[in-house]
Amino acid sequence: HCVGIIGAPFSKGQQRDGVQRGADLIRAAGLVQKLKGEGCVVKDYGNLTFEDVPNDEPVGRLKTPRAVGRASELLAGAVQEVKSHGNTCVMLGGDHSLAIGSISGHAASRHELSVLWVDAHADINTPSSTPTGNIHGQPLSYLIHELHSEIPIIPNFSWLKPCVAAKDVVYIGLRDVDPGEHYTLKYLGIKAFSMTEVDRLGIAKVMEQTCDHMFSKVKKPIHLSFDIDALDPSVSPATGTPVAGGLTYREGIYITEHICQTGLLSAVDMVEVNPKQGKTEDEIKSTVNAAVDLLLGCFGRVREGSHDPDYKMP
Ligand SMILES: N[C@@H](CC/C=C/[B-](O)(O)O)C(=O)O
Ligand SMILES: [Mn+2]
Ligand SMILES: [Mn+2]
């Protein structure tokens, strides 16, 4: 695997400081070295620089919209650049509003995508349905063709065009969905495996049905957008919007191992790690280590172990 890493230290899609530090914490936990240990060729493009946006007054209910729009525009260009070199792109957040940029940039390069959204939340509120005005709860509404009419003119969003069809989105891990979001999921018939389906089917069946759905017509490159709050807070407490009853560490790893073996993973987001939301060092470590291990699963690490083809017993 050839991997291009982009750090996106951005937090203005929500109100809690600290999530901008996720990228450097994941690096400090040894992501690059561990990917190389799995035989990956890794290029770390470093962190994007997000200039401060003064007077970023709310537009309607939307909070800091100009900063969010600008950050995703910048990220979109960076992701497209990484994809132009044929690498699988790893975006380290930062909050989930960044997926507006990562998926836009990915689509600019690879056009039709399958999007696997692993999250406790649907992140598909529209600017008029959002209960908080936080744009990290809205990214998919800006990206999906069928919701284009719900998006008003927003400063610093003029660059953005919808690029994903509702039928090409699959959710895993949902357990905190707002009424407006639920209406949208049903109305657009978006495939969703909430935690109820994870309990009912088991993660193996969920992944089998996820792949059946994604590959039902044409096999497309996969964009995996992984919100660390999809995992149970007992595993990843250091995050801004924790919700009880999440995926186990093992279910999370099974998801990324399974996606890896499709051979179609083209970009992955790892977002919402927030060290300031961890009560202890151990809580931060557990959260960051889970993020690293999930990414290693994306790039070939398997729990059964492995050995080089030319391995000789000593
Ligand atoms: N649905 C809530 C919560 C959003 C959660 C966003 B997250 O999934 O990116 O953590 C909102 O719209 O504010
Ligand atoms: Mn979430
Ligand atoms: Mn999210």
Topology of helices and strands:
Layout: E1 2-7, H1 22-28, H2 31-37, E2 41-47, H3 65-84, E3 88-92, H4 99-110, E4 114-118, H5 139-143, E5 169-174, H6 179-188, E6 191-194, H7 195-201, H8 203-214, E7 222-227, H9 249-262, E8 265-271, H10 281-298
Parallel strand pairs: 1-2, 1-3, 3-8, 4-5, 4-7, 5-6, 7-8
Helix pairs in contact: 1-10, 3-4, 7-8, 9-10
One manganese (II) ion (MN) is lined by residues 119-121, 227, 229, 241, 272.
Question: What characteristics describe this protein?
Answer:
alpha/beta; 314 residues; binds manganese (II) ion; globular; single chain; binds [(1E,5S)-5-amino-5-carboxypent-1-enyl](trihydroxy)borate(1-)
**Could you tell me how far the N terminus lies from the C terminus, measured between alpha carbons in angstroms?**
28 Å
N-to-C order of helices and strands: EHHEHEHEHEHEHHEHEH
User: What portion of residues belong to β-strands?
Assistant: 5-15%
Report the biggest beta sheet as strand number plus sense, adding barrel if it closes. Answer: 8 strands, parallel
Bound molecules: [(1E,5S)-5-amino-5-carboxypent-1-enyl](trihydroxy)borate(1-), manganese (II) ion
Helicity level: 25-40%
Q: In DSSP terms, counting alpha (H) and pi (I) runs of 4 or more, how many helices? A: 10
CA-based gyration radius: 18 Å
Q: What is the count of β-strands?
A: 8
Strand order of the largest sheet: 2-1-3-8-7-4-5-6
Summarize model confidence as the mean pLDDT. Answer: 98
Oligomeric state as shown: single chain
Low-confidence stretches: none
Instruction: Briefly note the structural class of the backbone.
Output: alpha/beta
Overall shape:
globular
